[in-house]
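Thread title: Can someone regenerate the structure for this chain?

I was given the following input by a collaborator and told the matching structure tokens would be attached. They weren't. Posting the sequence so someone can regenerate them.
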Amino acid sequence: MVHTGFPGERGLVTDVLVHEVFKEVEVGILSTPLGDLVGTLDHPIYFNDQWMEIIDAMKHGFENKGGKSMKLEGRVATKEVDMFYNLEVDGDAPGSSSHSYVVNGIIASGLGDGARLNSLFARQRAWKS
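Best answer:
Regenerated them for you:
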């Protein structure tokens, strides 16, 4: 079970995804009090009360939490990446949760790679078109 980042909600990890890269790629690096979160620029996170890609959240820069603004520290960098890891949450039960998980204090999308969840809950530009 994982925390989805939403009050009272937990989800079940139904797949652990490992994407081999083994090359230099542009990544988004989000600095948090729990450490840096490194991900693809198009990976969705829940930010400013909506789903958006990491690159868009970095451009926005602020999130309103309980009436307080918090600065999201992020940067784009070119890094040698061996692998990217991701989780699919509640992939066998569409709509049963927010299909998300918390990593380093950031709510990340847990839709996985499958067309079913990504089509139903399009959070990336690639699935919205």
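The radius of gyration is 14 Å.
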